[in-house]
Amino acid sequence: MKNKISIYFLLLCFHILHAQVKEPTISVAFSDKPIKDCFLEIENKCKEQFYFDSNWSDLNQKITASFTNEPVSLILNTLLKETNLNFFHTNNTYIITQNNFIYNQLNTSLVQTDSLPSVNQSNPLFFEKLVDATDEKDAIIIIGKQEEGNIKKTHHIEGIILDTKTKNPLSGVLISVTNRNIKTETDIDGHFKITLPDGLNHLEINAMSYKKLNQKIILKKDAVLNFQLTESVTLLNEVVIERERNKEVKEIASGVTSFNVEKAKSVPLVLGERDIIKLALALPGIKTAGEGTSGINVRGGKDDQNLFLLDNATIYNPSHFFGFFSSVNPYLVNDVNIYKGFIPAEFGGRIASVFEINSKEGNYEKFKGEGGIGTVTSNLTFTTPIIKEKASLIGGVRATYSKWILKQIDNKKLNKSDASFYDAYLKYSHKINKNNTLETSIYYSKDKFKISSDSLYSYSNTAASLKWRHNFNTKNIATFQLINSNYAFAIDYNSNNLKSFNYNFNINESKFIFKNVYFYNEKHKFTYGLNSVLYLLNPGELNPNDSNSLLTAKKIDQEKGLENDLFINDEYTLNKKLSFNLGLRYSTFLALGPATQTVYQDGAPIAPGNVKEIKEYNNNEIIKNYNGFEYRFGTRYLLSETSSIKLAYTTNYQYLHKLSSNTTQSPTDTWKLADLNIKPSYGQQISLGYFKNFKEDLYQFSIEGYYKKTENFLDFKVGSDLMLSESIETDAIQGKGKAYGVEFLIKKTEGKLNGWIGYTYSRSLIQLDGDTADKRVNNGNYFASNFDKPHDFNAILNYKFTQRYSASFNFTYQTGRPVTYPIGSYTYGNAQYTLYSDRNKFRIPDYYRVDVGFNIEGNHKVKKPFHSFWNISIYNLLGRNNPQSVFFVTDNGKIKAYKSSIFAYPIPTITYNFKF
Question: Beta strands of 164-318 (E only): which ranges?
């Protein structure tokens, strides 16, 4: 082989001035032979000369092929088809080029003759001088090869950006072409697509907590190119989150909040525990009915209208310990997405909000752990590789020893009570190959508490999941998931008498999810799939504890329902300013037998006296079918690079109702499926917001207004006894609701002083206008709901004194919740009765609270095997005696009012956190 590349350009300049001669035909066969050796054999057979650079890597590709009396050009086209090499034939010479194509005459279709650029005559026209790439950081990737007649001036490049260690896709990665002023970012699946012009392109890839990657690229054709980023870690320093600039302004969906749980460690929270739910409650539009209650109300919705998902598994009771802790261990949570405005079409089943909780990924390289020891709770999490770089395990446990804290509660019943909880989580992930990942997880939580000495209450959440992720290609990424969730509670009443009993309830949910993300082009990203959910509900079972009991065993018939949903969502970018999020979901619900249903007379109220017949349904026989379309629409218009307006409209169906005769959520609340007499709830919401960032994202401001309407939510007439009721519908009132509000939020994202201030003005009104007088509340007019709190103000401020010492401050103010007061008394039939006001006409006193916290981090030595930090918090620093409820008793013929509080004193806690 003749390596004559040193005179390559001189020979080429000479040869292109001469006409080509007829090329020879030869017969030749290759068996697993490198291309450069194939050239040598062809050269020997046809007596023509080949010129190339033997250092080109493409020449080492091996070829197996045979040719009989074929032109050399056809043979070379076959050999070079899968390479970036071209060839040029002239005067018994074959010149091999990399990427570029040589023309022997000027092709007027490729250039405009009236605007040809001036040429430096010291170099041939076809010569392109490249930057010296001896340094790795200056290396140039040349993709594809120039082809004759190809006049494309731009090419597309797409791919996936992964974490080097975990091989997980990275979302929100910014890809900038620094010499072209072109930018894009990866989506939630790590996918990106960008259009680059001819010539040299300087790519700069930036991601939060990862080393910056620079790459020079020359494209000759559309290509797929994947990148891997290496994590950049400074152990236990405060992490400053770097995002794509103006992300909150540019994202399409409105009413969506996302946060990383690491942020929670600098917020002073109750009992020293970082908590995702308490962090969410500091954001506009998210409230509770009061301190010590476990329900969450989002934009005026009831507490059963929120869908809590842990890796897509439904968690029916998201709280521990009377609502003071979330039921998911925060050390195992990676991030949380809260959808309170626009809800993507893939989510359904609730009409107020979705809390999407995503767990952390296990470590594929080495064993690591994290934990905390506090005055109320302790927890430990770990992660370890099972098969290095391919399989990992992550798990954690958490438990409480909280009896002492109950003694601080200003309530005689509660401070003589007992309470405990624990939860555990385990997840195994296996990367089968680059296109397939398998993941399985299991979660369990258990709570026990006593409100009095003779009743033990308990409830539990269980979830198990199997998930398969498959990349069909770079444009189609699919997930298949099987999930089973179970929620149960029990009451064990043991008073050493003949009325002792145990009571049980549970709801089981089996779910199948298929979702495919399709990257159609730069303008459209489609997400489509289906969900199928089978509900099995045990409404209640009571069993006496004694064979001589005065009570009779009773069990309510099981309820069964099947929900099926088809969905499609399109993220559509019309132009740089205007983008849309268009979603459609078709939802259907089948109430199934076996069951016994009461049919009431047509047009008559649902009451015991209007029964038409009792109908029996066989197993899986359809009792009632409900269905309908759910519309999801969101749009964003960029006013500038730092400001935008967003509009959203959503509709939702909910086929599951929570049964409660309390004013706030209780662990013993049960659930009810839609059936022949109970209709599903339906909600619709419209929202409009303005978003503005200042000083390169240092300050973020948003104002968003909303209006929502709800139909057929479930409430009950006064005095209803819901436990073990065989005719819930006779006590039920399916009401209407409306809510509206304005939410303000301003954030400072960086600096020694950072945090946010949020304010919400909102109203939540309901109408209970049943078909009988006892089902009509406040004469059928709209009135304030139990969780209507017009004013809600929160300030979360953090100040960093040094790298190791920081302090945090939390101030909360809320309007007192509505309450019904007695306004007089009257005598009827020689008995005295209390006369009450209209429901929720009055309010308890306003609520406000100040919390402080102080963090002390250990030293930041990189090679230190064990790292730690201390958190000291004081909850309710001012000792504010905030009333949790107001109640009335009759004493010597006089009505006296009393109030109860949860924490009437400052509660200090100290927690030791560690990593290894």
Answer: 174-177, 182-185, 191-197, 200-206, 213-219, 223-224, 227-229, 256-260, 286-287, 297-298, 306-310, 313-314
Q: Which amino acid is at 449?
A: F
Closest by CA to 210, choosing from 164, 276, 263, is: 164
CATH class of 5-115: alpha beta
DSSP 280: H
Nearest CA to 402 out of 267, 273, 266 is that of: 273
When mean pLDDT is compared across 72-86, 240-254, 346-360, 471-485, the lowest value belongs to: 240-254
Query: Looking at residue 792, what is its pLDDT?
Result: 96
Q: Which one is predicted more confidently, 236 or 218?
A: 218
What is the rounded (10 degree) CA torsion for 660, 661, 662, 667?
Answer: -30
Distance of alpha carbon 638 from the chain centroid = 24
Residue with tokens 């740089």: 576
Parse the chain into domains and list their residue ranges. Answer: 5-115, 136-229, 249-667+676-915
* Residues present in the chain in total: 916
Q: CA-CA distance, 333 to 258, in Å (whole number)? A: 13
Pick the CATH number of 249-667+676-915 from 2.40.170.20, 2.170.150.70, 1.10.10.10, 3.30.160.20: 2.40.170.20
- Helix 72-79 and helix 35-46, axial crossing angle in degrees, nearest 10: 180
Contact criterion met (CB below 8 Å) for 97 and 53:
no
Q: Do 316 and 365 form a contact (C-beta atoms < 8 A)? A: no
Cα–Cα distance, 94 to 82 (Å, whole number) = 19
Separation CA 557–CA 192 (nearest Å): 52
Mean of the pLDDT values across residues 161-184? Answer: 82
- Residue 808 CB partners (closer than 8 Å, separation 6+): 266, 267, 268, 755, 796, 797, 798, 799, 852, 853, 854, 855
Per-residue pLDDT band at 125 (split at 50, 70, 90) = very low
**Phi, psi for 403 (deg, rounded to 5):** -60, -35
3-state secondary structure at position 602? coil
Give the 3-state secondary structure of residue 873.
Answer: strand
Neighbours of 2 (CB within 10 A): 12
Residue at 550: amino acid letter: L
Structural contact between residues 90 and 104, judged by C-beta atoms closer than 8 angstroms: yes
Determine how many CB atoms are found less than 10 A away from the CB of residue 754. 18
* Three-state DSSP class for residue 18: coil
Q: Token pair of 249, please?
A: 């302004």
- pLDDT tier at 32, thresholds 50, 70, 90: confident
Closest CA to 448 of 277, 322, 542, 330: 322
Q: How far is CA 350 from the centre of its chain?
A: 16
SS3 content of the chain, % helix, strand, coil (to 5): 10, 55, 35
Close Cβ partners of 129 (under 8 Å, ≥ 6 residues apart): 123
Among 273, 271, 292, 269, residue whose Cα is nearest residue 405: 271
Among 624, 633, 540, 541, which Cα is nearest to 589's? 624
Q: Which residue has the tokens 């397939």?
A: 436
Q: Does domain 136-229 sit in CATH 3.30.930.10?
A: no
49-51/93-98 β-pairing: parallel
Question: Rounded to whole angstroms, what are the CA distances from 272 to 410, 449, 560, 889?
Answer: 20, 21, 42, 36
| N-terminal to C-terminal alpha carbon distance within the chain | 59
Rounded distance, CA 652 to CA 629, Å? 8
H helix count then E strand count, the chain: 7, 57
- pLDDT surpasses 60 at 266: no
Beta carbons within 8 Å of 120's beta carbon, 6+ residues apart:
none
Query: How far from the centroid of its chain's Cα atoms is residue 490's Cα?
Result: 32
Q: How many CB atoms neighbour CB 245 within 10 A?
A: 14
What DSSP character marks residue 40?
H
CB 869 within 8 A of CB 855: yes
The angle subtended at Cα 151 by Cα 146 and Cα 155, nearest 5°, is 70
